[in-house]
Amino acid sequence: MYDIAICIATYKRLIMLDKLLESLSKLAFNKNPKVKSCIIVIDNDNKGSAYSVVDKYSSEFSKILYDIEPTRGISSARNKAVDIAKKFNCHYIAFVDDDEIVDPFWLDELLFTIREYQADIVVGPVFFIFPRDTPEWIIKGNFFPRPLYQTGEQIYMGATNNVLFTRESLDKLKGPFDERFNISGGSDTYLFKSLSGGAKIVWTNEAIVKENVPLSRANAKWILKRAFRGGNTIGLCDKYLARNILTIFIRLLKGAFRITQGFITFLPSLFIGKQRIIRSIHYIFLGAGMIAGIMGYKFEEYRVIHGS
Questions:
Q1: How many whole angstroms separate alpha carbon 194 and alpha carbon 173?
Q2: Alpha carbon distance 29, 3 (integer Å)
Q3: At a CB cut-off of 8 Å and minimum separation 6, what does 106 contact?
């Protein structure tokens, strides 16, 4: 029996996975000194390319388990990790992405917060590390960072790049990650939307994760594609979860509003700087993604792997 399972889904990102496992090998506990944790790595490459990296750290952890999920898709890989965690009878299940590194007290702070605030789920921040050649307008435009909150503040959305669940919260959903989002991504958004209102989700600023941004993402093309995918995910979630036509109509209006916002701000942005120009186009792509999702179109972002 383990208290916590740390779950990692990976696909052909061996260098990044190595850095993540190295950071996990340095985990320390101050507020929860008697925690028994295990690492679960699910390789979505049916050729088992990540095995050698995981095996390298076999002596660094009390328990590190490697398995392959042959069905291509991030939802299927995450679901296999959850299944294994449940077999180990873990009380808590944490997720971190294979392109990240964690602070030594990352897990200690997640666990402290979920207990301190009697929460079902706790979410922490992700700080982005940009390559040297990143254009200055990307940094100024603030395209990557996500909102920050006060520790203990109740929130309603999160992602699986820095999160701790109670086992019971995941037992409420089939899967729990919906495999319709296997190649498109966004299954974590759908999960949080599905749990919203029925689970207590809180924030912690102290459980720190850092993500290395590959140069292939530090450009306008990727930022705009990501905006479309983000909107597409929101639209698909509303389509799948809609209880009535009003939800569909409201999302269509919001998508149209974002597109209008982009066109209205585009002309003034020409006199301000590239980050404002891309921000205006970003609104258009976001809105278009929302409408496309509501109409049933699915943008399959994960067919291309960055940082492999």
A1: 8
A2: 13
A3: 27, 96, 124, 162, 207, 208, 209
- Minimal CA–CA distance to 289: which of 217, 179, 219, 189? 189
Let me know: does 120 contact 199? Beta carbons within 8 Å. Answer: yes
* pTM for this model (two decimals): 0.94
The pair of structure tokens assigned to 11 is: 């696909």
Walking along the chain (308 residues) 10 residues at a time, the average pLDDT comes out as 90 96 96 92 97 96 95 97 96 97 98 97 96 91 91 95 97 94 95 91 98 92 96 97 93 98 96 95 98 95 68
Six-digit token string for 138: 């990307």
Question: Which residue has tokens 């966004």?
Answer: 186
Distance CA 241, CA 258 (A): 21
Contact 75, 179 (CB under 8 A): yes
